[in-house]
Amino acid sequence: MFTSSTPPKLRLTTLPNGVRVVSQQIPGMQSAAIGIRIDSSTRNEQPDTGGASHFIEHLLFKGTPTRTADQITDEFNSIGARANAYTSQEEVFYYAVSLASIIPVTFDILADMFVHSSLPEEEVEKERGVVLQEILMNQDNPSRFIYNQFHQGFWQGHPLGTPILGTAETISAISRERLMEHKLSNYLTNATIVSVAGNVDHDQIAEQAARLLGELPTGTPTGKKATSGYQVAIGQHVHYTRPMEQTHFYMGYPLPPAGNEHRHKLAVFNQILGSGMNSRLFREVRERRSLAYTVYSMMSSYTDSAGLMIYAGTGPERAQEAVDVCHAEVLRFCDEMVTDDVLAAAKEQIRCARLMALDDCETQVRRISNTTSLLGAPEPIESSLEAIAAVSADEVREVAQLLFKDVVPRVESVGPGEGPGLPR
């Protein structure tokens, strides 16, 4: 049970133009964070605009009619705020962390960027070079490279498989006019969520959002959807040969989409399988067999698809063994009931992590934005913790049998030689 006497207060307001404002009020905190999320990203891009969402993310910091790029940076700096942004397959998120007392000023700068960014021609050309260097950097980093390749392979034929950064060809060719056209047709009111966490006033932020975001075009972006009956690509292995000391690999299993009825059971499952030093993967792959320095599992969840992914980096001569062991640990859940002490420890790890995260406004502003988008409303922390506490050992085994029994995962790797194959 959730035992805090003062759980954070969540509020959601939908403005007349369709913009949603969600807040998590945490009294007594000095810091706060505010974000603007657009539910449009790579799955909304056309073949000639691959990477446009991420490119625009960079360019929103490069000037508006009333602020130059330097002025944006200087204004954030002068009030002690820290601003950033990221692009995922389904969203672009712009956010800033500052003292709670100056969140309205911070929001004013962020909203000006979001609504009025002019994408200056000279900045487009300079930032084009930066994005091309980012693509090259990801190619040179083995773990980033194989993550990106795996994501495209696992979701091949699905809009989620589109590379976030685009390609050197699309980024080199896309014009400022095409970028602006993409922004104006996707940065729309019904896809915009303002989220704020900390010692903040919801009504003040909602009033400010109505004023600052009132010029956004109305409507909802048109996102590409997978074909009817689409299934992620499993039971296949791909290896990219490179002269390296290690072999890095990802393995992937299909999951139900975000917000599914099993999500709390899967959170417990993933905690036991591959989250932290007490996980089964860490103990078996690293501690007992010395196969890898880094090994973990993670879940990637989207509106219409999701996957459980396992990562490890190991010596090429033992890569197949590592793949086999990781798969065996997944299947172990189908046959064995987790013990009471293992189950209790996993739940406590999740509970403590989520409660401690309440002290991090940046984490919370992302969380309430994500749950509002994926679930339709922000998920109260007490509700999620009660659901985690209610998960039983029987349910963990049942969900494992339902989702992983007889499933052959997809395996993609990079390293010397021929690489590992599918698990044996």
Mind describing the biggest β-sheet? Answer: 6 strands, mixed
Number of helices, counting only DSSP H or I runs of 4 residues or more: 15
Over all CA atoms, what is the radius of gyration?
22 Å
How are strands sequenced across the largest beta sheet?
A: 1-2-6-3-5-4
Which spans of ≥5 residues are poorly predicted at pLDDT below 50?
none
Mean pLDDT: 96
Helical fraction equals 40-55%
Shape: globular
Structural class: alpha+beta
| SSE arrangement, N to C | EEEHHEEHHHHHEHEEHHEEHHHHHE
N-end to C-end Cα span: 42 Å
InterPro entries: Metalloenz_LuxS/M16, MPP/UQCRC_Complex, Pept_M16_N, Peptidase_M16_C
Family: Belongs to the peptidase M16 family.
Pfam families: Peptidase_M16, Peptidase_M16_C
Domain Peptidase M16 C-terminal: 174-349
Can you describe this structure?
This protein is of the alpha+beta class and 424 residues long. It is built from 15 helices and 11 strands. The chain has helices at residues 52-59, 69-78, 103-116, 121-140, 142-154, 168-173, 176-186, 202-212, 263-274, 280-288, 319-335, 340-356, 361-375, 381-389, 393-403, and strands at residues 9-14, 20-25, 31-38, 82-87, 92-99, 192-198, 237-241, 247-255, 292-301, 306-314, 410-415. The strands form 2 sheets. The protein has a 6-stranded mixed β-sheet, with helices on both faces. Strands 7-11-8-10-9 form a 5-stranded mixed β-sheet, sandwiched between helices. A hairpin with a 4-residue loop joins β9 and β10 (306-314). The longest helix is centred in the first third of the chain and has 20 residues, at 121-140. It is globular and about 60 Å long.
